[in-house]
Amino acid sequence: MSITTRAAVVESGGAPFTLSDVELAEPAPTEALVRLVAAGLCHTDLGVASGGLPFPLPGVLGHEGAGVVEAVGSAVTSIEPGDHVVLSFTSCGGCRNCRAGHPAYCAAWLPLNLLGGRRADGTATISRDGADLGGHFFGQSSFAERALVDQRSLVKVDPDVPLESIAPLGCGVQTGVGAVWNVLKPGLGSTVLVLGAGAVGLSAVMAAALTPATRIIAVDRVGERLSLAKELGATHTVNAAEADLGEAIEKITDGQGADGIVETTGNVAVLRQGVDVLAQRGTLVVVGAPPFGTEVALDVNGLLPGKRVVGLTLGDAETQSFIPALVDLVKTGRLPLDRLISTYPFADIDHAVRDMGAGKTIKPVLTFGS
After folding, report:
1. Which candidate among 72, 255, 259, 291 keeps its CA 20 to 30 Å from the CA of 115?
2. Could you tell me if residue 280 is left (phi over 0), alpha (psi between -120 and 50 degrees) or otherwise beta?
């Protein structure tokens, strides 16, 4: 028996989000029906909505959902109705990387999350007037009042923490935090440089502030965001609209360069600048994603002093342990995520999109009525 719900549908690449009644399929044994309370809006959603990725449209996006479980399939054993959940990406659970605790590098990650628009067996989760829509986005498609969610996207969380305060943990925040904790792993006295002070970059700043790093440098072109970065733990800031990055980093680090860099902008010119200011044996983590096929030129000899450039997906996080830990940090005030969030009623999703595009908000979170 199908379930009718209200969803924000993107009809075609470049079209706005429009609210529409859709039908959810009968939940599969490995799925749960979740009533959404909040959903973060991410640049990945906007990239797909613009037609920049081959996700099937018309479709329902949304991949930073948080809500309350209403029903579970027969094979779901770790979640039950009434549980509060944060929704993240899904994975197969059986490939080498999944078994090794690295589900963000699942062998089937792209079709299961970003490109397929259907379950792994090819069936659709969402339809409208008898026609299938693109769905199952990151195993959830959470721009809807209710969603069918794959069990590997579900993370049970503390019910005492407001869901609108932790919805972004499912993607952007765990990406920034994971870049620092899971890849850079700053040592005592190290320097961490964060390129871009958006939601991912500021999450990296907050994560670095919880490590032994003694210099945390945030770079952006917007003064207000740099001021916020200082409040969240940055020891230094660089306004890239006013200063040369290389000269600024040389001065701040006494010519040593940065031990760890998180590149969040997706701008290959910034990426190249980041590689050039790496310290010997330093690591740059590529988080920002430019269009498919984008290339960057690097000075090969400049890499020989042990510099590393590493790509990253979703913080290389094992969500079942990582996200509850982040929730606890939010609850205790050590990860002040509320400083990034602006809330919008679900019906105002296009307002949130405009504000995000204009840089008026760092992390829009859509809220749903009861």
Report:
1. 72
2. beta
Q: What gap in Å lies between CA 255 and CA 238, rounded to an integer?
A: 16
Structure tokens at 27: 């939940």
Per-run averaged pLDDT (10 residues), the chain, 370 residues: 91 95 95 98 92 91 98 94 98 97 96 93 95 97 98 97 97 97 97 97 98 98 96 98 96 97 96 97 94 90 97 96 98 97 97 93 92
In Å, how far are 19, 63, 194, 324, 343 from 39, measured between CA atoms? 15, 7, 26, 17, 10
Nearest to 66 by CA among 48, 88, 98, 89: 88
CATH 3.90.550.10 fits 175-313, yes or no: no
Cis preceding-peptide flag for 186 (omega within 30 of 0): no
Residue 370's pLDDT is what? 61
- How many other β-carbons are positioned within 10 Å of the β-carbon of residue 247? 11
DSSP per residue over 96-149, as a string?
Answer: HHHHTT-GGG-TTHIIIIII--S-TTS--SEEETTEEEB--GGGT--SBSEEEE
Query: What torsion do the CA atoms of 11, 360, 233, 338 make, to the nearest 10 degrees?
Result: -70
Task: Give residue 338's identity as a one-letter amino acid code.
Answer: D
Domain ranges of the chain: 3-170+340-367, 175-313
The confidence score (pLDDT) of residue 330 equals 98
CB hemisphere CA count around 236 (13 angstroms)? 20
Decide whether 3-170+340-367 matches 175-313 in CATH topology.
no
Residue 52, pLDDT score? 82
Listed in sequence order, the residues at least 6 apart from 208 whose beta carbon sits closer than 8 Å to its beta carbon are: 180, 186, 192, 194, 216, 233
> How far, in Å, CA of 104 to CA of 113, rounded?
10
CATH architecture type of domain 3-170+340-367: Alpha-Beta Complex (3.90)
pTM, two decimals, is: 0.95
Give 3-state DSSP helix, strand, coil % of the chain, rounded to 5.
Answer: 30, 25, 40
